[in-house]
Amino acid sequence: METFSSKLLQAAVEEFSRLPGIGRKTALRLVLHLLKQDQETVARFSDTMLRLRQEVVYCRQCHNISDQDHCEICRSPRRDASLICVVEDLRDVIAIENTGQYHGLYHVLGGIISPMDGIGPADLTIESLVERVSEHKQNISEVIMALSTTMEGDTTNFFLFRKLKPFNVKVSVIARGIAIGDELEYADEVTLGRSIINRTPYENMITK
Amino acid sequence: METFSSKLLQAAVEEFSRLPGIGRKTALRLVLHLLKQDQETVARFSDTMLRLRQEVVYCRQCHNISDQDHCEICRSPRRDASLICVVEDLRDVIAIENTGQYHGLYHVLGGIISPMDGIGPADLTIESLVERVSEHKQNISEVIMALSTTMEGDTTNFFLFRKLKPFNVKVSVIARGIAIGDELEYADEVTLGRSIINRTPYENMITK
Fold first, then answer.
1. What is the band of B188 on the pLDDT scale with cuts at 50, 70, 90?
2. What letter would DSSP give residue A119?
3. What is the reported pLDDT for A95?
4. What is the residue-wise DSSP string for A129-171?
5. Taking a C-beta distance cutoff of 8 angstroms, is the pair B125, B99 a contact?
6. How far does Cα B34 stand from its chain's mean position?
7. Which of A49, A63, A121, B138 has its CB 3.0 to 4.6 Å from that of A108, i.e. a possible disulfide?
8. Which residues in chain A are closer than 8 Å to B20, comparing Cβ atoms?
9. pLDDT tens per residue, chain A (208 residues)?
10. Which domains does chain A have, with CATH numbers?
């Protein structure tokens, strides 16, 4: 443990060190950076974190992070409300939004079924998804499952598929295949096999 | 630029991204971590940074970061006030304190003479060091220069040596156990500690 000539400095370094992936040297570097900024800059930094934690809420419909009862995506009239894309957490929402390829709504599960980590269906927003589909089933054309292509993702896909079956809504899973830019010879056999089974008409490729 | 469903979230990610070495993905990870903490934890984080910037002062004697007019090291009766160790910045103070090999006082220059970066003697606390040595010369047995073993460090050593010569105070340089070209803050503690024990009279340096 370092010796600091200032208790304020020590406290600040300790706060930063508690963040994931931030060691004590990095924490000190960040603190010294903040010290060099003017007071308003640091006040804004400080206030932003406080407000974030105190004021942020979760969308009542899709459980995405939000500033209001319903998030900006759920409120937007430009989004296709007949599509629901089911994701694990909000990082996935951001990743999909960044593709610019999806214009429907989301449903954030808040995790993935993982018995090893003690996460079961009751820990996720699955009941809320079932209610949402049940309530709006006339207006929902498709539920797209965009979960990780892991065993936990597959388990969750299977669980959701069975839960949604009674509502006669189309349920799809994002395509699994060779990543763009990857060389075929380095792809694993399971992915390569799946990409052959789920091959796409060439027309779909060029008219995307 | 990512699309966020919450302006609070976006603001928080942007604040973290402004810190050095923190990209947008890391910023998002840190923000999501803070969101998972309870309100008191985030309030303490926020408050610590604000207080750090607002309340921190610099020691009037050694220019180290401090909570009061004089820092804890300068105030301590257990420190040997006859020794002054001249360092570039407070990271070096922390590094030397961590070796447990030094029990004197410090003088923080606030940088190093570097014409390439436009930093001259007047930008540093050199005048203050000269006054300090002049004022306490009866009680000062040695000034130890612990600067980086770079060209800029050598230039600064030479400049300080000439400035301090009139006071007939012993001036030494930490031993070159540290590889030439390495920066002080990255040196391991054993090497750094050894280099303080084996400090060399400045004359030995220039006749090598």
1. confident
2. B
3. 86
4. HHHHHHHTTTT--EEEE---SSHHHHHHHHHHHHHHGGGT-EE
5. no
6. 29
7. A63
8. 29-30, 33
9. 556 778 889 999 999 999 999 999 899 999 989 988 999 999 999 999 999 999 989 999 999 998 889 998 999 999 999 999 999 988 889 888 888 888 999 999 999 999 999 999 999 999 999 999 999 989 999 999 999 888 899 899 999 999 999 998 999 988 888 787 778 777 788 888 877 887 777 666 665 4
10. 7-55 (1.10.8.420), 77-174 (3.40.1360.10)
Whether residue B60 contacts residue A70, with contact meaning beta carbons closer than 8 Å, is answered with: no
Determine phi and psi for A54, rounding to 5 degrees.
-80, -30
pLDDT at A208: 47
B47, B52, B54 ranked by CB distance to A31: nearest? B52
Closest Cβ opposite residue B50 in set A21, A43, A52: A43
DSSP strands (E only) in chain A: 57-58, 65-66, 80-87, 104-108, 142-145, 170-173
Q: Which residue in B2, B3, B5 has the most chain A C-beta atoms within 10 A of its own C-beta, making it the best mutation to test that interface?
A: B5
Tell me the three state secondary structure of residue A82: strand
Beta strands B200-201 and B170-173, pairing class: antiparallel
A94–B28: do the CB atoms touch at under 8 Å? yes
CB contact under 8 A, B53 and A73: no
Chain A residues with beta carbon closer than 8 angstroms to that of B96: none
**Tens-place pLDDT, residues B26-45:** 999 999 999 889 999 999 99
Enter the tokens of residue A165: 């079956």
In this prediction the pTM is: 0.70
Report which of B46, B22, B9, B39 is spatially closest to residue A89, judged by C-alpha positions.
Answer: B9
Are A42 and B49 in contact (CB < 8 Å)? yes
Instruction: Tell me the shortest Cα–Cα distance from B206 to chain A, in angstroms.
Output: 34
Please tell me the distance from the alpha carbon of residue B35 to that of residue A110, in angstroms, as a whole number.
13
Q: How far is B81 from chain A (nearest CA, A)?
A: 16
Residue in the structure block whose two tokens are 């030479």? B158
Neighboring chain A residues of B66 at a CB cutoff of 8 Å:
5-6
Q: How many residues does chain A have?
A: 208
Whether the pLDDT of residue B176 is over 70: the answer is no
- For B136-208, where are the alpha helices, taking DSSP H only? 151-164, 189-197, 202-206
Q: Which two tokens stand for residue B117?
A: 């970066």
Q: End-to-end CA distance of chain A: give it in Å, rounded.
A: 57
Chain B partners within 8 Å of A64 (Cβ): 5
